Amino acid sequence: MLADSLTNVTTEMLRSEAFQSTSPHLKVALFLGAMAFLSSALVTMTAFTRIVIVLSFVRRALSTQEIPPTQVILGLSLFLTLFVMGPTLTTLEQEAVTPYLQESISGEVAWTRGSGILSQFMLSQTRKQDLLLMMDLADVRSIESPEDVPLRVLVPSFVISELKTAFIMGFCIYLPFVLIDLVVSVILMALGMMMMPPVVISTPCKLLLFILIDGWSLIVRSLSLSFQT
């Protein structure tokens, strides 16, 4: 539903007189710039960053090289992002996109409402110290409430907080698998099999443990619950 609404917005922009009067080269440049902005917004203003980093940690901790493939990791991260962002995207559609398509509000009002909805999501996931850091670097002082923080300050603060949270979760995931590597290394040394790489023995043990505890369900559940406030 939201994707259809965004498509309609894009179509209306393409049909506008201002866009039609521009040269073909400028149209291509504007289109490519919009696509680049959308991909950047997906990474920096949604739950995508935390999810993809945590899933990458899982793959590295299991020592399975490129299994699952990168395409699978990115695809799962994208759909988990849509799942986590579902309530926010629904509110964004109802309060900003749909009224704009119905011409009941102007583009400026739609942008204000939409950015405010995304700001609320980002503020709920941003640590106070990270927000204060970026406010200090940007020399932003006259802020009466967190909702008044400009996007140029909020977005990098949100990304820093997401990176920190993702690395904390990655550490908690990595630790038990590192212990398995240590135990296997000690056993191989005790048996005098120092020439055998520990990863040859530890990888099947990691996979068995991950399967027994239903690891993917636990990871997805933990990621989903980590965004609840």
Essential attributes:
single chain; 229 residues; mainly alpha; elongated; disordered N terminus
Topology readout:
Elements: H1 2-15, H2 17-20, H3 24-44, H4 48-62, H5 70-84, H6 86-101, H7 107-125, H8 128-137, H9 151-190, H10 198-212, H11 215-226
Describe the structure.
There is one protein chain. The chain is mainly alpha-helical. It has one domain (2-53, 69-226). The protein contains 11 helices and no strands. α1 runs parallel beside α6 (86-101). It is elongated. Mean pLDDT is 78; it is low at 1-20.
User: For the terminal residues, how far apart are their CA atoms?
Assistant: 25 Å
Care to count the β-strands?
0
Biggest β-sheet description: none
Which radius of gyration do the C-alpha atoms yield? 23 Å
Helix content range: over 70%
Overall, the morphology is elongated
Order of helices and strands: HHHHHHHHHHH
Beta-strand portion reads under 5%
Structural class based on helices, strands and sheet pairing: mainly alpha
Number of domains: 1
Unreliable stretches (pLDDT < 50, length at least 5) are 1-20
Give the helix tally.
11
Mean pLDDT: 78
